[in-house]
Amino acid sequence: MTKQTFKRITWVLCIAVVLTACKEESEIVKMIRPIETVTISEQAIKQIGKYSGIVAAVESSGLSFEVSGQVVSVEVDIGDRVKKGQVLASLDPEPFQLDVNAADAALVTANDNIDKTKAEYERQKRLFEQGAGAESRVEVSEFDYKSALSAVEFQTAKVDQANRSLRKTNLPSPYDGVIAWRAVEPNEEVLAGKKILEINAAGKIEVELAIPETSVHQLNIDDPVKITFPTMPGEPAKGRISYSGGGAVKANAFPVKVELIDPNEKIKPGMTAEANLELQNESANLGYLIPIKAMLPAPAPNRGFVYVYDPDTSTVNKTAVHHRGAAQGKVVVDEGLGIGDIIAIAGVSFLADGMEVTLMKDN
Asked: With 226 labelled, which of 35, 176, 313, 329 sits at a CA distance of 20 to 30 A?
């Protein structure tokens, strides 16, 4: 076989292979995505509203001296636990002690003057009765005697006031608690009534909330509340509504307080909290609970999309819904869905409107 003949045979075989491949039809495999679904079977039990608030002591007081003076000592700092009656700070007592001494001396003088004016009054009265005195002198001596009595009463009050001011140079704790704030140092001059310390009473604590006017009427005293804390994940607390204000404070929001029941010792005044409130509104559409992962976000607030399965066509339809709040870790949808709807709850970001799917399981 010549070299030229070999080349010809090789070309013939290659052409035959190409022609055979062209005759074979390409096989296209159609992929149908399986999806996990859930069937909506019941309405949400209640509408849940989430509101942020601040933890505070049920009883809290700003403390100040009732007299002005120079601070000589501050016995506590922020975070210190104190007992009722414990001295927290003191003023220099010397000026007040001098006032007490002066008032005592003035009272002694006033008492001595009583003896003198009384004796003179009695003498003038006897002379007048004997016909040797004038009635005007009796009247004058009587007036002097009564004035002396009034002066004693006045000086007695001044002694009491001076002693009270001396006692007020010590600032005692009004109850057992914790010092929450301090704004004073020794040697400072402070005015009467100026707040220098703040104390939170030991024991009960609460969460202070501001509830919109559209929701506050749906709350009742003693309603149960679940409280969570961003700094304490997984450690919620139970509470009850203990106060609902009768007037708006700002931005048309009403003050509401939730008293915590058996709070964790880690919970401190000033911490941020989130209250989950059950809003009572029998006339409102309660909506349906669906898993958060079943919803795609939408640009408008409280709007989103879910994929609803159509059993007739085995496809999913992208459906717009309206939602509000959350309950039991799920979103409350109040528009766009109904009982019996089958919705996709996993991998929704990979779905498309009208896509053919198959069901994995139905929860």
From this structure: 176
